[in-house]
C-alpha cells in the first residue's frame, strides 16, 4: 500500500502544448497516463537498453575482425632499405593488414553473459509492468477524488435548494406575523453557510481536476473535465477469500516479487560469470599483412666495364681461379604499388591458450563479492515478500473497514433522512424553531457527504485489494 501511494513522488510531469478538450472517462485517463507518463517512458527505455545488451552479449560469440593501414614518411638519418647504408633521407612506407580472432572457450562466460542479458530484459519488463500498475492505480485514485468532490457539491446544492424553499416560506410567514423574525435570520444564516461551503467545494473540484490534468500531462485546465456517471459499488467477492489465499496469489502475480526473484537469479548468474575467470581461455587467430615502400631498388645494368669478372674461389687440386660475371647494379624506381603489395604479402594463423595462475586475488575477491550480492538479493526477496504480506494485510483490513464504514454511512444517511423529514414536519407546524431545523439540515448534509466519501473510499480500497489478488488493472471494474 505504501509503495502505491508513494508512486506520486516518482512521477515527472511534462506539459504538452496541445489543448485537450471534452470529458474524459476513467479508462481514457488511464490509457493516456500509460502512454505519456514520463516515468513509464523512462522504464521503457530501460527495456530498449536491455535489448541492446542482449545484442552485445550475442556479439561475443562472433569472431572479431579488424583491418589496419598506415602510410608514413621518415625524414633524417635512417637505413636505406635498398643499400643498407645509413643516410639522411626521406622515405615513405605503406603497410596494411587484416586480423581475425575467435574466442573458442572462455570458461562459459560468454554463454552466461548472454543468459544474463536475457534475464535482465525480463526483469526490466517486470519493472515496466509494475510501474504501469502503480501509475494506473494512482490515476484511478485521482479520478475518484474528482468524482467525490463533484458528488459532495451536489449534496450541498441539493440541501441548499431545500433551505431556499424554507427561506421563502419563512419570509412569507414573518410578513404575516406567524413566525418570529429570529427564525428567518437563522435560516438566512444557514443559507449563507451553505453558499460558503459550495464555493469551497467548487474550488476543491478545480484543484482535483488540475491535479488529474497534470498527471495526464494536459495543459488546458479550463476545458479539462471528466465524464460524470454514478460509479456503482460492485460485489466484494475478494473480501470473502481468506487473506492467506490473497497473499499467496499476490506472491505469484505481483511484479515486485517477480522483480526481486529475477534480481536474485541475476546475482546468481553474475556469480557464475565471475567463477568463469578461474578457467583457461582458448582462442584462434588469423592475420594477413602486406607492405609497400617508395624507396628505390637495385636493378642489373650489365657487366661492370671496369671489372667484368670477379674472383669467387679456386680449385684446390689445380689451383685454377674460379671467376663469375661481375654485374653492375644501379638504384632504379620502385615496383608499382599493387605489384609490391602482391609480392610482399603474408599470412599467419594459429591458436592461443591462456591459463590464469595468479592475478593478485582479483578473481577470488570478485567471486566473493558476487556471493555477497547473492545473499543480498535473497534477503531483498525475503523482505519484498514480507512487505507484500504486510501490504496485503493492510489492503485487506482497509477494504473490510471501508465496507463497514460504507454500510454504516448508508444506515446513518437513512436515519438522518428520517430525522430531517421529522424535523421538517415539526417545523412546518411550528413545533420546533429554525435553529433545530437548520441543525437537522446540517446533519443530513454531513451524512450525505460522509456517504459519498465512504463510497469512493471503499471503491478505491477494494480495487487495491483486487489488484493484489491478481486482477489486471485494465480488468478492474469501477
Short summary:
The protein is α+β, with helices and mostly antiparallel strands and about 475 residues long. The protein folds into two domains: about 1-65 and about 110-275 and about 365-475, Outer membrane efflux proteins (OEP), CATH 1.20.1600; about 295-330, no CATH class. It has helices at about 1-5, 25-35, 40-60, 110-175, 180-215, 245-255, 255-275, 335-345, 360-430, 435-470; strands spanning about 20-25, 65-80, 85-105, 225, 280-295, 295-305, 310-315, 320-325, 325-330, 345-355.
Describe this structure as you would to a colleague.
This protein is α+β, with helices and mostly antiparallel strands. The chain folds into 2 domains: 2-64 and 108-276 and 363-475, Outer membrane efflux proteins (OEP), CATH 1.20.1600.10; 297-332, no CATH class. Helix content is 59%, strand content 19%. The chain has 10 helices and 10 strands. The protein has helices spanning 2-6, 26-36, 38-59, 109-176, 181-215, 243-253, 255-275, 337-343, 362-428, 434-468, and strands spanning 22-24, 64-79, 86-105, 224-226, 281-293, 297-303, 309-315, 320-325, 327-332, 346-354. The strands form 4 sheets. It has a 4-stranded antiparallel beta sheet with strand order 2-3-5-10. A two-stranded parallel ribbon has the order 1-4. The protein starts with a helix and ends in a 10-residue tail after the last helix. This is Outer membrane protein. Pfam families: OEP. Keywords: Cell outer membrane, Membrane, Signal, Transmembrane, Transmembrane beta strand, Transport. Residues 1-19 form the signal peptide.
Amino acid at each position: 500500500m505504501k509503495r502505491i501511494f508513494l508512486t506520486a513522488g516518482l512521477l515527472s510531469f511534462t506539459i504538452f502544448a496541445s489543448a485537450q478538450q471534452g470529458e474524459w472517462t476513467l479508462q481514457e485517463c488511464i490509457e493516456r497516463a500509460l502512454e505519456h507518463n514520463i516515468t513509464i517512458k523512462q522504464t521503457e527505455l530501460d527495456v530498449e537498453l536491455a535489448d541492446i545488451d542482449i545484442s552485445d552479449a550475442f556479439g561475443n560469440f562472433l569472431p572479431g575482425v579488424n583491418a589496419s593501414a598506415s602510410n608514413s614518411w621518415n625524414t633524417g638519418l635512417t637505413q636505406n632499405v635498398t643499400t643498407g647504408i645509413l643516410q639522411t633521407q626521406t622515405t615513405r612506407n605503406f603497410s596494411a593488414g587484416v586480423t581475425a580472432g575467435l574466442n573458442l572457450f572462455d570458461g562459459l562466460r560468454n554463454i552466461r553473459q548472454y543468459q544474463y542479458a536475457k534475464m535482465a530484459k525480463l526483469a526490466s519488463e517486470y519493472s515496466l509492468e509494475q510501474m504501469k500498475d502503480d501509475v494506473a492505480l494512482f490515476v484511478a485514485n485521482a479520478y475518484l477524488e474528482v468524482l467525490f468532490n463533484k458528488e459532495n457539491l451536489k449534496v450541498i446544492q441539493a440541501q441548499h435548494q431545500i433551505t431556499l424553499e424554507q427561506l421563502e416560506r419563512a419570509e412569507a410567514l414573518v410578513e404575516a406575523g406567524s413566525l418570529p423574525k429570529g427564525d428567518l435570520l437563522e435560516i438566512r444564516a444557514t443559507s449563507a453557510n451553505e453558499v460558503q461551503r459550495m464555493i469551497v467545494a467548487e474550488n476543491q473540484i478545480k484543484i482535483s481536476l488540475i491535479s488529474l490534468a497534470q498527471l495526464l500531462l494536459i495543459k488546458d485546465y479550463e476545458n479539462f473535465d471528466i465524464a460524470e456517471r454514478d460509479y456503482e459499488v460492485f460485489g466484494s467477492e475478494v473480501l470473502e477469500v481468506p487473506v492467506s489465499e490473497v497473499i499467496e496469489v499476490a506472491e505469484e502475480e505481483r511484479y515486485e516479487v517477480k522483480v526481486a526473484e529475477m534480481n536474485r537469479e541475476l546475482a546468481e548468474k553474475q556469480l557464475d560469470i565471475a567463477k568463469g575467470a578461474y578457467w583457461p581461455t582458448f582462442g584462434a587467430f588469423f592475420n594477413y599483412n602486406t607492405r609497400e615502400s617508395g624507396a628505390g631498388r637495385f636493378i642489373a645494368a650489365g657487366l661492370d666495364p671496369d671489372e667484368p669478372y670477379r674472383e669467387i674461389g679456386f680449385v684446390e687440386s689445380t689451383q685454377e681461379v674460379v671467376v663469375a660475371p661481375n654485374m653492375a647494379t644501379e638504384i632504379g624506381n620502385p615496383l608499382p604499388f599493387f605489384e609490391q603489395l602482391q609480392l610482399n604479402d603474408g599470412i599467419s594463423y594459429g591458436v592461443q591458450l591462456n591459463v590464469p595462475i595468479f592475478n593478485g586475488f582479483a578473481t577470488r575477491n570478485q567471486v566473493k563479492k558476487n556471493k555477497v550480492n547473492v545473499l543480498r538479493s535473497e534477503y531483498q526477496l525475503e523482505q519484498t515478500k514480507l512487505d507484500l504480506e504486510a501490504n496485503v494485510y493492510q489492503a485487506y483490513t482497509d477494504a473490510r473497514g471501508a465496507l463497514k464504514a460504507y454500510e454504516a454511512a448508508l444506515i446513518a444517511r437513512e436515519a438522518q433522512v428520517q430525522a430531517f423529514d421529522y424535523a421538517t414536519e415539526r417545523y412546518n407546524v411550528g413545533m420546533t424553531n429554525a435553529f433545530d431545523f437548520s441543525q437537522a439540515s446540517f446533519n443530513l448534509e454531513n451524512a450525505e457527504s460522509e456517504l459519498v466519501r465512504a463510497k469512493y473510499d471503499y471503491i478505491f480500497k477494494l480495487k487495491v485489494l483486487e489488484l493484489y489478488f491478481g486482477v489486471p488493472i485494465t480488468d478492474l471494474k469501477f
